Amino acid sequence: MSRVRMLGILTIFLCALVLQVSCLECYVCENQEDNSEKCVKSIKTCDFNQDVCLTEIKWGSTPYWSQGTKKQYYISKRCSNKTECATNRQRYMPLCTYIWYQDWVCGDCCQGDRCNYYIIICHSFYNPIDSGAVQITQSNLDMVLASNEIVFINFYAEWCKFSNILMPIFDDAAVEVAKAGYDPGKVVMGKVDCDQEGAIATRFHITKYPTLKLFRNGFPAKKEYRGQRSVEAFAEFIKKQLTDPIVQFGSLKELHDLSEDKRHIIGYMDRRDQPEYEVLRKVAASLKDECLFHAGFGDASQQMHPPGQPIIVFRTDKRTSIEPDETYHGSMLNFDELYTWVQQKCIPIVREITFENAEELTEEGLPFLILFHHPSDTESVKKYKEIIMNELESEKQNINFLTADGVRFEHPLHHLGKSVSDLPLIAIDSFRHMYLFPKYSDMEKPGKLKQFLQDLYSGKLHREFHYGTEAPASDNDIKVTTPPESTFKKLAPSKNRYTLLRDEL
Ligand SMILES: *[C@@H]1O[C@H](CO)[C@@H](O)[C@H](O)[C@H]1NC(C)=O
Predict the structure, then answer these.
(1) What's the 85 CA to ligand 1 centre distance in angstroms?
(2) Rg of the Cα trace of the chain?
(3) Where in this chain does the record put each Thioredoxin domain (predicted)?
(4) d(Cα 408, Cα 370) in Å, to the nearest integer?
(5) Cβ-based neighbour number of residue 444 at 10 Å
(6) pTM of this prediction exceeds 0.70
């Protein structure tokens, strides 16, 4: 065999090897606004040592990455190798948050021809016209919640007739909402198959199908959707959710006439298009039921802040307080920080329960500590608030502090074996049982009320009701009693049927 021929064979052999190993094709694009056009059309055959396709997705604003300004996606795709891509992915890991109000960047690698088309699809892009509502599973739930301001979810079960009636309507509504052309990161309509995704259903306390829940800024709204179930009603509902809740004032004089029985958040700003306003708008959208939000721009609020330095203040309800406006001192570009501050100001730690808000309060899911008082007795309310503020503020994650008009809520008193003549008194409603705080006047003894709560958490209250406070001398002495059943759980949304008070059916 001649040397020349051998070289020839060798060359052919090598070529074949090269072709087999590395004729990978990837999509190639740079900083495109969405996953279309170039990003799904321009294809490159990679070099022989490149074995993966790389994708980078950035979320942020141009030209500078600054918080608060309008954000968009920047998508880049290219050929890469395993080492380079893994390093890249590692580097982006801490920045890859998918949180819509922050800038983020994520990197990903995939093997297979043009696979960087699909990578993007499973992460955060979907074709809204294609499928109606987005199928939500454990693997994309947190990303979808974090990367959208509003997420409206239909929790369904396939065996449920009402779920099946709703499904096409909800999907059509999703198409309608997609057509409305909201900016990316604003709104997504999703659906969860609760039989397949038991963990999600449990996490959001889904007990009936279909349940419609709104999530804003990643958190479930307090109330589930109970409006009409039509394409128009859903589309209108979404539109309303995205409407700016901040009322603009034209002069400082208007601020003198703000409603005195409401709490207010007021922004003194330069322009509506400044980033601080966008952050305030998102906070306002979450807390618009708790406070009224106002903002003035330019001349209207010029006197109240140095140019270029917006100011946000809280004005409490003037009817019950003479406190002056309180200024926010945190960062106005930090959503979490501002949200926490506004929430603290706007949601009082002690609230009054009424028949109107009872359902909403039960939906918050925390047991109630309730002061029942005579409507004419405001003294005990003041005292109760003072004690809770001073001693029990740290407990507000675990319990809902409430006051109730003992005449209107006479029924629960009877459950406790009490009547209007026994007011004021304090009780816990755990949604299973009610427990009476033994002696109202003990409230003022430091630590007593706190101990009562501890005894609820530890199960002591429940045990004592069944077996008494003393250790039994012998088994024969055990006197089993049952604490009165919860009365407030009956005010919660029905688990088996819909309340027909509203027009949801
Ligand atoms: C991967 O790609 C990078 C950048 O192009 C290059 O520097 C590196 O040598 C490549 N590594 C391998 C193993 O081919």
Answers:
(1) 9
(2) 30
(3) 123-243
(4) 14
(5) 12
(6) no
